[in-house]
Amino acid sequence: MSSPLGLPAKCDxxxxxxLLEQIKSRRGAPLCIDAQGCSGIGALxxxxxxxxKRSWRSDAVAFSLxxxxxxxxxLTLLGVADSLLGMEPVK
Length: 91
Description:
- By secondary structure, this protein is α/β, with parallel strands linked by helices.
- The chain is built from four helices and five strands; from the N terminus they run ββαββαβαα.
- Helix 1 (13-24) packs parallel to helix 2 (43-58).
- The longest helix has 16 residues, at 43-58.
- It has a three-stranded parallel β-sheet with strand order 1-3-5, with helices on one face. A two-stranded parallel sheet has the order 2-4.
């Protein structure tokens, strides 16, 4: 498995384009997103992560997200924590 993809400390709109490119470059291989250094995530980056999880699932390739309580709180506020963290199926 390749090394985890680390999220920036501030995963906001300005970080979304780079995050998308980094994720796209790993398509087809197992992907672990390391969000332990991330202190906040915005809606656009959350949408990028959710789309990535859907793509990896459709490709039948492993996808995981390792984060902090702060990240989980942000994802919960955005309404995508369950889908991204594996507690419910991604639709």
